Amino acid sequence: MNAFIRTLGSLVFLIATLLCAAPTHAEDGYDLWMRYHLLAPEQVKRYDSHASQLIIGSTTPTQTATRDELQRGLNGLLGHAPLLSNDINRNGAIIVGTPSSSPLIARLKLDTTSLGNEGYLIRSVAVDGHTATVIVANTDVGALYGAFHFLRLLQTEQSVDHLDIHESPRLKLRVLEHWDYLNGQVERGYAGASIWDWWKLPDWRAPRYTDYARANASIGINGTVLNDVTDGATILTPTYLQKVAALADVFRPYGIRVYLSIRFSAPIEIGGLKTADPLDPQVQRWWREKADEIYRIIPDFGGFLVKANSEGQPGPEDYGRTHADGANVLADAVAPHGGIVMWRTFVYSQNNPDDRAKQAYEEFKPLDGRFRSNVILPVKNGPIDFQPREPFHPLFGAMPKTPLMMEFEITKEYLGFATHLVYLGPLYEEVLSADTMVHGKGSIVAKVIDGSLEGHTLTGMTGDSNIGTDRNWTGSDFNQANWYVFGRLAWNPTLSSRAIADEWVRMTFTNNNAFVKPVVDMMMGSREAVVDYMTPLGLVHLMGPGHHYGPAPWDASESRADWRPVYYHRADHEGIGFDRTSTGSDAVAQYAPPVAEQFNDLKQTPEQFLLFFHHVPWDYRMRSGQTLWYELVAHYSQGVDDVKQMRETWRHMDGYIDDQRYQQVASFLAIQQKEAQWWRDACIAYFQSISGLPLPPGYAPPEKSLKYYESLTFPFVPGYSSWQ
Ligand code: GCV
Q1: Judging by beta carbons within 10 Å of its beta carbon (0-12, 13-18, 19+), is residue 466 exposed, middle or buried?
Q2: Which of 86, 533, 618, 644 is the most buried (most CB within 10 A)?
Q3: By CB neighbour count within 10 A (0-12 exposed, 13-18 middle, 19+ buried), where does 546 fall?
């Protein structure tokens, strides 16, 4: 009998394990990484003893949100929610709160001084003779972040015994920037329309807004810019401010502040003034009154984001004033309310014939120290524009008296839009760990933006969002990882992108190591693959004009020279590459001397940046001993081979996850392979027509003629820039 019961027990256990291990029901990706599916029975057993009771307040909206999230998460992961109680009366309680909101926590007398306003600690303790896990912070939002961390431990099947976790964000502003227009379009957005339904706001607050806030809070994002940097001034009108206020209400419990992109000429466009000159007292008053109006209805409004005097946008230079004059008038308007101004450095002018890579530095470096203390300058990761690979931006480390924030592009404008599987973690990590050398070795970009290098307290990172109305939010399941890794690195820019990929895969798909390991490896290699099949060896901006889809290295059709691919690669019969050395545009001089010296020297320049800094003969001998022409072809071919390998890896993943997501990834990888081949063939066909050299032995010729690739047109590319 005993044996029978044992066998029956094992059978039930086996069936339950199989059910958990091999999900068969369709999933559409809506849950993102907050996918609280029932864990395997042995994991449930392991965590049950740590989740018997939940002791948490619910007097504030943030406390309620935290309680709801823990209940939802634990219910999903363990199959039942812990008992909600006011006092501890058994082992395995979870106690959440702040010393001021929870008498139980106050009694523990934990040292929370180092946690600041947003940090938390998670610790295994004994309370009144019972074991418990406490999630403690100085604020409700800190406790919410801690709750998400605790859930992540379970989702990724980590130990929750003997916990002693201290976390606080390294950066103050962790901001998503939406390039969304009021008409519903999203600039460079490949996941459907804007998620802000402006027409129905403020009365209809779609439940999706709350899920958006949950997702952001789960990775520590604490700000959102709702509209595109080239959006008009309408957002500042009373009607739209009511809509903005409604969104701010939804986000507030999750610790998310709302920011707006403003148009510098708003005082003229909606204010009826004749000028937007920042030194004009009427203009200054207009901005002050506008700020007062905003803060009356959104008391925790974050502040303004500005793109000025760049790519046709109005700005202070229209009146002979500087970027600092422009930023300061806005800064003065929001300062009494605790607001900040993010004044973008992505500035270059069509009237300036100098190397585009140099222009932001030249504009801003002389203004160092001339901005108000509530101004921070977003700097794109590289000096051109979010290319698959660029060296770090020379402004990092060059403006010691001014807070700089990192601007990353999460939406894959130049990296295959929604369909290509490109995990951006390695790109972000490469830039954050790049050494500016401004104060000797170890002056890495992460230390510039976390303020530790120059002692700034206003710090931040902003990411140009990839979110839209698609059910899976980002246009593909793997694009969710780019939102995720952005948030995690904004919390701590020294985290490893591999570790982040690992936790994301576990939470988003499965903890099965047979899936996790190969998929994480595939993600980690995916960025190098796209560099290889699009822009290897330091090439940049070979994308089709305007829409940036597909290869067009031959293109010289754009009105502006610095929007043309031929401007960037400068290929001729002798060689290829942009000479930015001291004998060329001298862009290298913008870096600290040891870095400048390295980039200035052909032999010392890392080959991944070779053609960014040097014009190199086709027969130049690379470190491999092969010629540059050979290596160029080899890299393009390697990129395609890598994508083939990614498809092969994914083929072996069939059956580990739900079919719906599996199939979509498989189809998208097929698109990626086709397009990688197109990139390779079109670029090789073109560069061969310039170099006049035969293909190295063993490499297949392009499938079609150069004429064919040049003839392709794409009038309805998604995410097209509406201001061009
Ligand atoms: C918002 C790139 C993109 C533009 C974008 C611009 C910017 O040039 O192509 O769509 O405009 O960057 O960051 O301002």
Answers
A1: buried
A2: 533
A3: middle
Report which ligand 1 atom has the smallest distance to the Cα of 721: 10
| CA distances, 636 to each of 535, 605, 678 (Å) | 8, 20, 10
Overall average pLDDT of the 523-540 stretch? 98
Contact partners, residue 327, CB within 8 Å, separation at least 6: 306, 341, 343, 371, 372, 375
| Nearest CA owner, ligand 1 atom 9 | 721
Identical fold at 173-508 and 532-578+615-711?
Answer: no
Paired tokens of 140:
């409700």
User: Is the sign of the CA dihedral 543, 545, 546, 550 positive or negative?
Assistant: negative
Instruction: Based on the residue annotation, tell me whether 413 is a catalytic residue of this protein.
Output: yes
**How far away, in angstroms, is 721 Cα from ligand 1 center?**
8
**Catalytic choice (118, 140, 363, 413):** 413
Query: Which residue has tokens 């670029």?
Result: 683
Amino acid, single-letter form, for residue 183:
N
Residue 561 DSSP one-character state = G
421 three-class SS: coil
631 part of the active site: no
Which residues make Cβ contacts (< 8 Å) with residue 277, sequence separation at least 6?
283, 316, 319, 321
Ligand 1 atom with minimal separation from the 407 CA: 13
79 in Cβ contact with 41 (< 8 Å): no
CB 385 less than 6 A from any atom of ligand 1: yes
Nearest C-alpha neighbor of 155 from the set 509, 495, 567:
509
Tens digits of residue pLDDT in 329-387: 999 999 999 999 999 999 998 788 999 999 999 999 999 999 999 999 999 999 999 99
Check: CATH 3.40.50.720 for 532-578+615-711? no
Model pLDDT for residues 587-642, shown as the tens digit of each residue: 999 999 999 999 999 999 999 999 999 999 999 999 999 999 999 999 999 999 99
Cis omega (within 30 of 0) for bond into 545: no
Q: Rounded to an integer, what distance in angstroms lies between the CA atom of residue 486 and that of residue 165?
A: 22
Confirm whether 503 is a catalytic residue: no
Q: Is the CB of 721 under 6 A from ligand 1?
A: yes
Taking the centre of ligand 1 as the mean of its atom positions, its distance from the CA of residue 538, in whole angstroms, is 21
Structural domain boundaries in the chain? 41-167, 173-508, 532-578+615-711
Q: Is 441 exposed, middle or buried (0-12, 13-18, 19+ CB in 10 A)?
A: exposed
Closest CA to 187 of 143, 121, 232: 232
Distance 428 CA to ligand 1 centre (A): 18
Confirm or reject: Cβ of 168 under 6 Å from ligand 1. Answer: no
The one catalytic residue in 48, 280, 300, 311 is 311
Q: Please say whether the beta carbons of 622 and 628 come within 8 A.
A: yes
Alpha carbon nearest to ligand 1 atom 1, residue: 229
Ligand 1 pocket check for 188: Cβ under 6 Å: yes
Task: Compute, in angstroms, the gap from residue 667 CA to the centroid of ligand 1.
Answer: 29
Give CATH superfamily name and number for 173-508: Glycosidases (3.20.20.80)
CATH architecture of 41-167: 2-Layer Sandwich (3.30)
pLDDT band at 723 (very low <50, low <70, confident <90, very high): low
Token reading at 722: 């509406």
For residues 670, 540, 617 and 707, what is the CA-based torsion angle, rounded to 10 degrees?
50
Cα separation, 129 vs 671, in Å, equals 60
